[in-house]
Amino acid sequence: MTARLDIHRLLTQHPLFTGLNAATLAELARSSHVRAYPKGSVIFFQNDPADGYYVVISGAVVILLTSNDDRELIISELHPGDTFGELAIITGNPRSTTVVTHDKTECLIIPTKAFLTASRKNLCSSGECWNPHPA
Fold first, then answer.
1. Distance of CA 62 to the CA centre of its chain
2. Which pLDDT tens digit goes with each residue over 110-133?
3. CA–CA dist 43, 82 (Å, integer)
4. Distance CA 111, CA 53 (A)
5. How far is CA 45 from CA 15, 22, 29, 59, 121, in A?
6. CA 11 from chain center: how many Å?
7. Which domains are present in the chain?
8. Rounded to 5 degrees, what are φ and ψ at 39?
9. Of 131, 112, 129, 127, whose CA–CA distance to 48 is shortest?
10. Secondary structure, 3-state, 17-58
11. Distance CA 41, CA 100 (A)
């Protein structure tokens, strides 16, 4: 099975994307990619710009919040099937947390633009258009 078919399969199995039509799902799969991270890798830092929506395929990640006095607080640990990165995409603000791999980890990464486009198409096709960053 090719990487593109694997991505398509991952998307169709994830509850968030089950309502997408075939064309939107195929477009989302073409835009997305899988990335492997060694244990202890920073996926993104607090205050980074939003680059995508992430689905944990294997391994685990830890969500950290850095306090004003530079202490790191563990907010959550995520495992296969869990997602992260949506808040900054939806709000248009920088990342609110840092994400670090707890183990060797693979993530499906859906670029911000592709995620927003698919979300708009899906919601508009149901009659509920959504604009996460109104002018």
1. 14
2. 999 999 888 777 655 555 554 555
3. 15
4. 6
5. 27, 34, 25, 19, 30
6. 12
7. 3-125 (2.60.120.10)
8. -55, 135
9. 112
10. HCCCCHHHHHHHHHHCEEEEECCCCEEECCCCCCCEEEEEEE
11. 5
Look up tokens 């073409």; give the residue. Answer: 30
Chain position carrying tokens 């995409």: 89
**Total residue length of the chain:** 135
pLDDT tens column, 57-115: 999 999 999 888 989 899 999 999 999 999 999 899 999 999 999 999 999 999 999 99
Per-residue model confidence (pLDDT) at position 57? 93
The amino acid that residue 13 corresponds to is: Q
